[in-house]
Design goal:
Blueprint (H helix, E strand, L loop, with lengths): L1 H15 L6 H4 L5 H7 L1 H4 L7 E5 L1 H9 L5 H5 L2 H5 L1 E5 L4 E6 L3 E10 L2 E8 L9 E8 L2 E8 L2 E7 L2
Antiparallel strand pairs: 1-2, 1-8, 2-3, 3-4, 4-5, 5-6, 6-7, 7-8
């Protein structure tokens, strides 16, 4: 029991220093229509976002630096060592993880270029957050953007 409490407190301390406190990132909200317009090729093709996705740490760092922060500052050191990822299956299954302590699984729906998820967390000591997933093409490279705590993690096809 003592280890679980320490883990929960540690997780909460990391989360309390995360993106949701950063006003400049909150102001970069992407709307459904902007996402759908920017990624027309994905709107009609759900298969383009299905599968396993893994963190592209270099691209995520580049994008976070544009708003004056970084991957380590927003998500702690665990994401650097253990990464982040998501999986979407044709049957509506969804799972995600970030670092060693944040993650969950459930279902998704796809509409207008955005994925909406309904999930349960793997650990009950972390507060459930809104997650938005959407496809994005940058320099002819396909990404699945995982937005949580107001920050965007750039995911690429993984195993």
């Amino acid at each position: 029991m003592k280890k679980k409490v320490i883990l929960c407190v540690s997780i909460l301390m990391v989360l309390m220093t995360g993106c949701f406190e950063r006003e400049e990132i909150e102001n970069t909200e992407i709307t459904v229509s902007e996402s759908a317009m920017a990624t027309k090729e994905y709107v009609e093709d759900l298969s383009a976002i299905l599968g396993k996705w893994t963190l592209d740490g270099v691209k995520t760092q580049e994008e976070l630096e544009k708003v004056g922060t970084g991957l380590r500052e927003e998500f702690g050191t665990a994401v650097l060592e253990y990464g982040a990822g998501a999986e979407l299956r044709e049957d509506g299954y969804f799972s995600f993880h970030e670092g060693i302590s944040v993650g969950g699984e459930g279902t998704y729906s796809y509409e207008n270029g955005l994925v909406t998820v309904d999930y349960e967390l793997y650990v009950d000591c972390v507060e459930k957050m809104e997650i938005v997933l959407y496809p994005k093409v940058i320099d002819d490279k396909d990404y699945l953007v995982l937005k949580m705590y107001g920050c965007e993690l750039y995911l690429i096809r993984g195993e």
